[in-house]
Amino acid sequence: MPSAPQLAFQPTEFTMIPKEVVHKDAAGEVLLRELRHTGADQYVVTARWPSDHHFYLARGGLYDPLLLTESIRQCLPLLSHAAYGVPREHPLLWETYSYRLHPQALRIDGLDPEVRLEIACPEVVRRGARTAALTLQIRAFRGAIPLATARTRFTIQTPAVYQRLRAGQGDAARAMAGALPLLQPVPPGLTGRDHFHDVVLAPTDAPDHWQLRIDTAHPILFDHPVDHAPGMLLLEAARQAAQALAHPRPVLPAAMDVVFTRYVELDRPCWIQAAPLSEDPDGAPRVRVALGHDDDPAFRAAVTLAPLP
Fold it and tell me: Coil, strand, or helix at residue 57?
């Protein structure tokens, strides 16, 4: 397999990676700081996590585990554009994502504030000269302390192919304008949230069933116009549904195994269901979360829970 080309830019640890390269409109939401090419299809990315983030809230003296996921999500466009020559207008389509973390390594105090992501790309799919898909294997550290392992795969489409896949639904401005009216949320405490505007579950008449609450004005989940529900919104819904099932015990998602099977449209109700799964090999409780339009599944996740200190 050919090695990656030279990086398209060389940020330093003192310079924030450009927001456009990680697909964010708000520069303050860029978590990544440095990218280094360390070998054939191997990289090191460093990140800095804010302890006072207004959406990814610290709880129990620990960073929010979804800061790890957002850091990895930012690595997908970063490596695509900076290392594999993917034009910025080519959409990235998330297919699978899994992680397992050590909750004690999320401590805010007493550990190195920098997160180091050691990334290998064992599968680089090319169509001629174009990079068409990437698989990332990640080991995350804080100093010398292991934080997490993760694996993810995504495909890369040309704009023309993407519009064919979206079958007339690929216009972001039109999709945002046609989004469903904002629904009333479930009580924030049920989902481990402090504020109603961060709740992504709306109540239904069925137990452990909710409707996805789509707030296109949310500054983090809808940082920029999109033509479908963002992947981080679906992961947040899985986290909140798992917490709702565990309520009143406060828990955190210590691991997730996620499959994205189709797009979640903004103008159609998306239903969320949570149910207990068998315990993992270490005896930790797990929850299955499924999202979709009526009988049309779009996303599923197995969430492993750990008690919040």
Answer: coil
At 233 the three-state DSSP class reads helix
Instruction: State both tokens at 158.
Output: 């040309």
> Helix axis angle, 231-246 relative to 66-83, nearest 10°?
160
* Nearest residue to 79 (alpha-carbon basis) of 161, 25, 135: 135
Percent helix, percent strand, percent coil in the chain, to nearest 5 = 20, 35, 45
Using DSSP's 3-state secondary structure scheme, residue 102 falls into coil
What are 258-293's pLDDT values in tens digits? Answer: 999 999 999 999 999 999 999 999 999 999 999 999
3-class secondary structure, 287: strand
Alpha carbon distance 297, 277 (integer Å): 18
Measured in degrees and rounded to the nearest 5, phi and psi for residue 170 equal: -95, 10
Chain centroid offset of residue 248 CA = 25
* Residue 249: exposure state from Cβ atoms within 10 A (0-12, 13-18, ≥19): exposed
Q: What pLDDT band is residue 6 in, cutting at 50, 70 and 90?
A: very low
pTM of the model: 0.94
State the Cα–Cα distance between residues 238 and 241, nearest whole angstrom: 5
Q: What would the 3-class secondary structure string for 141-180 be?
A: EECCEEEEEEEEEEEECCHHHHHHHHCCCCCHHHHHHCCC
* Helix, strand, or coil (residue 272): strand
Sign of the dihedral through C-alpha 21, 43, 236, 67:
negative
